[in-house]
Write a structure and sequence with these properties.
This protein is an all-beta fold. The protein has 2 helices and 45 strands. Helices cover about 5% and strands about 45% of the residues. Beta-L-arabinofuranose binds next to strand 1 and strand 15.
């Protein structure tokens, strides 16, 4: 396979940030993708991750020359995994251009991605819908034709609490239509939302467009109120918003969310709540070579005001703070990156993506990596059609301490994978991890994934997902020392629960809900057969008593002595790959949990 030339983004970023061994700019995690230009962010929270659907500006573009869409995801808001391009113009055989701003939503286990494209036969902009079985696709054309078309753009989708879904879109008008439960057909006709100055503010200087509404609606519901955050005025755009007591209005203009900033004459909002925080995605031209047609998606954390209004936000190079830490003792994809310099990504023959086109001095930064009591070795899945090179494992910056160096030899092909392992010392506690790629000239090697192993260390975070409800529980620092925290949250990011380990004395460890104040006491703090778990109200009144029982088939069962229900722990371990199952003691799998 011949290596193609690296992209303009990669060249410029490598020049600016990497090849001279300068440390990365302090704390710069915005824009959140550096190896290609991204635009029009549309976040979706699903099963404890934020999935980010974006458009893709071509390098050196001089128009909105956009041919495909991209998906990224993150569990911590700073390290983003590149899932490649699961949908493109080629998905829609009847479309020929303009893969512009869309939004994806989940319903009944399927993922629907609404996008504007140009219809070949009419030359008009219409809305198509892709459907996939996972948030990362692949997506197929759900209809084989447009869903709806008014020669306008930028669909936003919202499913109301009563199950009614609405599709909004438009420039210069603002339309909505009621989607049917199948999400790929609708009832009634597309309806224009009246663009009044009370609803959408006043624009001066354009008699044809008296209100601020321009394009890019992002419609959602929060606390009984409906929000429409939209690109306002042109050009340059800012982001404004309106609210309404219902999904179809009447709308009231509420002001600016993000003023005109950031070297792009368009902007586009996407908002989600995730693990107790609210996040505002937008785009700008902040990458080297960036501008109005070479944009990049960024994110800020924010808090709604007490009355539900949105504060005015400013673009930063810092971005959102990390939620939790990253576990280096489980396999991590090489394309999970907080900041990358000089790298590109491509589909891997082993599944997912790999990073490639790595040249001497290129690097990836992975933020907030929790090594705990220490790592003893580092392994990476690598391939090289040339002579390979080395991976320097550094902490805190590109010139930070080298805690390990792995040699990569030629493997006979860019997708001929092998695993290289090297010793690690000095990696304890939590650090930003820098993997720096060094060697001769030209492309050195590809990396598919990496993983540390510990010298008796404890994983510092693990996650269990309820396969029935989708609920996710992340456990950080799963030791029993004071201040260790367990964060419990459902997949939609609301109703967050935090638990704290307290030393209750008497050999008992007490887990207190920061949220409710209630406690769970773990007697003996052990999962050995026979150890007991007692749930208290914090007033030392045991209201639930459990005991461990071996099931004899490799499972350990936690029996609730009050209700008789069981929590069955496969292997009785929280090691990587261990699964938890909740049983009723008689039925096999009423609830399933897995890491
Ligand atoms: O990305 C192409 C177009 O630019 C989008 O559809 C608009 O919202 C603007 O961001």
């Amino acid at each position: 396979m011949t290596r193609r030339r690296r992209s303009l983004v990669a060249l410029v970023v490598a020049f600016v940030c990497g090849v001279t061994l300068l440390p990365a700019p302090a704390q710069a995690d915005n824009p959140i993708v550096q190896h290609l230009y991204t635009a029009d962010p549309a976040p979706l929270v699903h099963n404890g991750r934020v999935y980010l659907y974006t458009g893709h500006d071509e390098d050196a573009s001089t128009y909105f020359t956009m041919k495909d869409w991209r998906v990224f995801s993150s569990a911590d808001m700073v390290n983003w995994t590149d899932h490649g391009s699961p949908m493109s113009l080629a998905t829609f055989a009847w479309a020929d251009a303009n893969a512009w701003a869309g939004q994806a939503v989940e319903r009944n286990g399927k993922f629907y991605w609404y996008v504007p494209v140009r219809q070949r036969s009419t030359g008009q902009m219409v809305i198509g819908v892709g459907v996939g079985d996972s948030p990362t696709g692949p997506f197929r054309d759900a209809l084989g034709r447009p869903l709806v078309g008014t020669n306008e753009i930028d669909p936003s989708v919202m499913i109301d609490d009563d199950g009614q879904a609405y599709l909004y879109w438009g420039n210069p008008n603002l339309w909505y239509v009621r989607l049917n439960a199948d999400m790929i057909s609708y009832s009634g006709s597309p309806t224009k939302i009246p663009l009044t100055t009370a609803g959408f503010g006043s624009r001066t200087g354009d008699a044809n467009r008296p209100t601020l509404y321009e394009e890019g609606p992002w419609v959602y519901k929060r606390g009984g109120q409906y929000y429409n955050v939209f690109a306002a005025k042109c050009c340059s755009e800012f982001l404004g918003y309106s609210t309404s007591p219902g999904p179809t209005g009447p709308w009231t203009y509420r002001g600016t969310v993000m003023p005109t900033q950031g070297s792009s004459f368009t902007n586009h909002a996407g908002i989600v709540d995730f693990r107790g925080g609210s996040y505002f995605f937008y785009h700008n031209g902040a990458l080297p070579g960036g501008g109005g047609f070479t944009r990049s998606v960024a994110v800020e954390k924010f808090s709604y005001n007490a009355d539900g209004t949105i504060p005015t936000l400013t673009m930063t190079a810092t971005g959102a703070p990390q939620v939790g830490t990253l576990d280096p003792f489980v396999r991590q994809e090489a394309e999970t990156i907080a900041w990358g310099s000089g790298i590109e990504t491509e589909p891997s023959t082993e599944g997912g993506m790999n990073i490639g086109w790595l040249e001497n001095g290129d690097y990836v930064k992975v933020k907030g990596v929790a090594f705990g009591t220490g790592a003893s070795s580092f392994s990476a899945r690598v391939a090289s059609a040339t002579a390979g090179g080395r991976i320097e494992v550094r902490l805190d910056s590109t010139s930070g301490p080298v805690v390990g160096t792995c040699t990569v030899g030629g493997t006979g092909g860019w997708q001929a994978w092998t695993t290289t392992t090297c010793a690690v010392s000095g990696a304890t506690g939590t650090h930003d991890l820098y993997l720096r790629f060094v060697g001769g000239s030209g492309n050195l090697f590809n990396v598919n994934w990496w993983q540390f192993s510990g010298g008796g260390s404890t994983p510092t975070a693990y996650r269990v997902t309820n396969r029935n409800s989708g609920q996710v529980i992340d456990v950080q620092q799963p030791n029993t020392s004071d201040l260790a925290v367990i964060g419990q949250w459902p997949s939609n990011g609301t109703a967050w629960q935090q638990w704290r380990f307290l030393d209750a004395g008497n050999g008992t460890v007490r887990l207190q809900s920061v949220h409710s104040g209630k406690c769970v006491d773990v007697s003996g703090a052990s999962t050995a057969d026979g150890a007991a778990v007692i749930q208290y109200t914090c007033h030392d009144r045991p209201n639930q008593v459990f005991t461990w029982r071996s099931t004899g088939d490799g499972y350990a069962t936690l029996v609730n002595l009050n209700s008789g229900k069981c929590l069955t722990v496969v292997n009785g371990s929280i090691a990587a790959g261990a699964a938890l199952e909740q049983r009723t003691c008689t039925t096999a799998t009423s609830m399933q949990w897995s890491r």
